[in-house]
Structure formats: structure tokens, C-alpha cells
């Protein structure tokens, strides 16, 4: 049974770089959701502090990566990957609003608005990953 394997080339490197880089901010946003849940259950300010630090680190990294990814997509005419980049941009905006909410004092810095924004950010990331998997399967059928 003949099997065709697509060989990797130098042109694949920039395409694979953006999703690989975005895993770091995505991990920060997912762990932010976990620390928000822990704060909502315990009211221990340490979890809120972890949340804002994770949001800040994730926002700095995501801001750089999304800006580079959008410039790359527009400059190199990579429209099939725009779904992924726009999804990450939406997650970035949600995380930015979440950081503003987390900058408030006391329990309301996380519950309920901060926790809701954390859930929405993670949902946007999951939807974006799902749509990107569909796009990759359509672009490179097995």
C-alpha cells in the first residue's frame, strides 16, 4: 500500500513557529483560570497574586507573538492561518480586560467578573485550537 509522506521544508518553519510560541501565553491563561478557581474557593490572596502575575506574563508574551503573527499573516499572504491568529487576538483582548479586573482590590478582583473572563479566555483558546485543527486537516489531507 503506497503511503505519501509530506516532507518538511524550510517554508514550514515560520508556519509552525507561531502556534508553538503561543502555547506559552495560552498556558499562562489556563493556569490563571485554575488560580482564579482556587481563589474563589479559598479567598487566599496568594492565588489572586498568582493570577495577576500569570496574566501579566501571558499578556506580554501574547502581545508580542500576536503582533508578529498578524504582521506575518498579512505580509506573507497566509490567509488560511488567519483564524488561528484572530482567535489568539480575541483571547489577548479578553485577557487584557481580565487583567484590568484583577487589578481591583479584595474579593471582587476575581469573583465573579475575573473568573468569568478567565473562563471566556480559555474557551476562546479551545475554540481557536479546534478551528485550527480543522483548517490543518483541510489544507493537508492525510
Task: Explain the overall architecture.
Helices cover 77% and strands 0% of the residues. α1 runs antiparallel to α2. The protein has helices at 12-42, 45-75, 82-102, 113-139. The protein is elongated. The chain has 142 residues and is an all-alpha fold. The protein is built from 4 helices and no strands.
What's the SSE blueprint?
Layout: H1 12-42, H2 45-75, H3 82-102, H4 113-139
Helix pairs in contact: 1-2, 1-4, 2-3, 3-4
Structural class: mainly alpha
CA-atom Rg in angstroms: 18 Å
**Low-confidence segments, ≥5 residues, pLDDT <50?**
none
- What is the oligomeric state here? single chain
H and E string: HHHH
Spatial gap, N to C terminus: 14 Å
* Proportion of residues in helical segments: over 70%
What does the average pLDDT come to? 85
General shape: elongated
Q: Report the sheet-strand fraction.
A: under 5%
* Most strands sheet: none
DSSP, total strands: 0
Number of DSSP helices?
Answer: 4
Amino acid at each position: 500500500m503506497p503511503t505519501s509522506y509530506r516532507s518538511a521544508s524550510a517554508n514550514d518553519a515560520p508556519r509552525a513557529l507561531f502556534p508553538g510560541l503561543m502555547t506559552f501565553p495560552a498556558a499562562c491563561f489556563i493556569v490563571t483560570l485554575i488560580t482564579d478557581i482556587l481563589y474563589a474557593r479559598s479567598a487566599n490572596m496568594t492565588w489572586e497574586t498568582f493570577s495577576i502575575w500569570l496574566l501579566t506574563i501571558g499578556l506580554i508574551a501574547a502581545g508580542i507573538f500576536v503582533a508578529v503573527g498578524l504582521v506575518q499573516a498579512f505580509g506573507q499572504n497566509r490567509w488560511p492561518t488567519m483564524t488561528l491568529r484572530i482567535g489568539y487576538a480575541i483571547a489577548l483582548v479578553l485577557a487584557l480586560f481580565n487583567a484590568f479586573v484583577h487589578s481591583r482590590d479584595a474579593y471582587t478582583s476575581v469573583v465573579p467578573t475575573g473568573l468569568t473572563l478567565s473562563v471566556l479566555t480559555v474557551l476562546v483558546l479551545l475554540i481557536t485550537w479546534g478551528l485550527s485543527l480543522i483548517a490543518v486537516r483541510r489544507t493537508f489531507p492525510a
